[in-house]
Automatic annotation (TrEMBL):
Residues 323-394 form the Peptidase M28 domain. Keywords: Glycoprotein, Membrane, Transmembrane, Transmembrane helix. PANTHER family: GLUTAMATE CARBOXYPEPTIDASE AMP1-RELATED, N-ACETYLATED-ALPHA-LINKED ACIDIC DIPEPTIDASE. This is Peptidase M28 domain-containing protein.
């Protein structure tokens, strides 16, 4: 009997000990993290959170729409008066905010159209001459559709459809017995091909000229672009083309010539492409091309439609301007955070690039307001507005 009582006493004592240990273990595991989370937030953490919330609270559709409207009042093709006016607008905006504003000017080789014409001789349907003028706002001139750096030329040849103008597309045409030598090829944009790549491939196949069109845009709209190979100013590849005293290659140097195509080219609208493509005869369009075509094309040619195409242009050294606003960092000023967008456009540039430029101006406005409240960045922030991107990023390699 005494033995049973002794065992029971030991058992009860053991259970009580486990309860005590469990209580303290639970208290430690629960209260210890709680103590950590209740530590007071440091002033620096609180201020960072405050500035972050303030930055987001400054959102205003009105200011962004105002900037976008101001940036798109007139065309601003790089190297033109309109481009200079837009640069001045961005510069004045940065300066009005009290930001440290800098301007870098470069003189680069740009390309502009002087004359172009396209006539289609549609076999029994007569002749169709296409116009390329586009209406602008009052007092504005919109540059005619063209490919920057296209060589001049006057060509007459049968039209032929080459899909995207890839090597595989020409192999398919070859299997159909189609010879594009001396023809004016019509290619749709896409398929992983750049404009310049399409023109170079066409030249390698013996074509005389290239017309490109873009699916998915307005029927009358034309997508301009560059056919130059590579990036940067062709006369100063890899180094800054400063306005005075800078080193330059000659236009006739081999290194420069290899960047430009050998046959003329021009962009056209879907409306123009449809007139040409629906007049073609010859083999039927391969099924793998047909499924995604817009407009629909039945035959690839060549002909019987004959195209008479002329392009004349000028190349000239033009001044471009990059605008920067610098906000010095307080802890790591020699480390930079770059935020930027190009500013030039083929025409008005409401989407590309000014949807981005208007946001850049809004970010600058908010940073300036935060600076008045005592904020400063850890690293140096540089807000960048580049020029002449559309010609082949001739602005952004410096």
């Amino acid at each position: 009997m005494a033995r049973v009582t002794k065992v029971s006493t030991i058992t009860i004592s053991f259970i009580i000990l486990l309860c005590i240990l469990g209580f303290y273990t639970t208290q430690y595991s629960v209260t210890q993290p709680s103590t950590e989370t209740q530590k007071p937030i440091s002033p620096s953490r609180r201020s960072k959170s405050h500035f972050h919330d303030t930055f987001l609270s400054l959102s205003s559709n009105y200011t962004v729409s105002h900037y976008l409207r101001s940036l798109t009042l007139h065309p601003h093709l790089a190297g033109t008066t309109g481009a200079h006016q837009t640069a001045q607008y961005v510069k004045t905006h940065f300066q009005s905010l009290g930001l440290d504003t800098k301007v870098a000017e470069y003189s680069v080789l740009l390309s502009y159209p002087t004359y172009l014409s396209l006539t289609a001789h549609l076999n029994h349907l007569g002749t169709r001459e296409f116009g390329f003028s586009e209406l602008g706002h009052i007092g504005s001139t919109v540059v005619r559709p063209y490919h920057a750096y296209s060589p001049p030329g006057s060509v007459m040849g049968m039209a032929v459809f080459v899909n995207y103008g890839r090597g595989e597309d020409y192999r398919v045409l070859g299997a159909l017995g189609v010879n594009v030598s001396g023809c004016v090829v019509v290619a749709r944009r896409g398929g992983g091909m750049s404009r310049g790549g399409v023109v170079r491939r066409a030249a390698a196949e013996g074509s005389a000229a290239v017309l490109t069109y873009t699916e998915g845009v307005s029927v009358k709209g034309v997508e301009r672009g560059t056919v130059m190979k590579g990036l940067g100013d062709p006369l100063s590849p890899g180094w800054a083309s400063v306005v005075e005293g800078g080193e330059r290659l000659e236009r006739g140097d081999d290194e420069v010539l290899e960047r430009f195509p050998q046959i003329p080219s021009m962009p056209i609208s879907i409306e123009t492409a449809e007139v040409i493509l629906r007049s073609l005869e010859g083999p039927r369009v391969p099924q793998e091309w047909r499924d995604t075509l817009n407009p629909k094309v039945d035959r690839v040619g060549p002909g019987p439609t004959v195209l008479n195409f002329t392009y004349e242009g000028e190349e000239k050294i033009s001044i471009i301007r990059d605008i920067f606003a610098v906000i010095r960092g307080t802890e790591e000023p020699d480390r930079y955070v770059l935020l930027g967008n190009h500013r030039d456009a083929w025409t008005y540039g409401a989407v590309d690039p000014n949807s981005g430029t208007s946001v850049l101006l809004e970010v600058a406005r908010r940073f300036a307001l935060l600076m008045r409240l005592g904020w400063s960045p850890r690293r140096t922030i540089i807000l960048c507005s580049w020029d002449a991107e559309e010609f082949g990023m001739v602005d952004r390699l410096y």
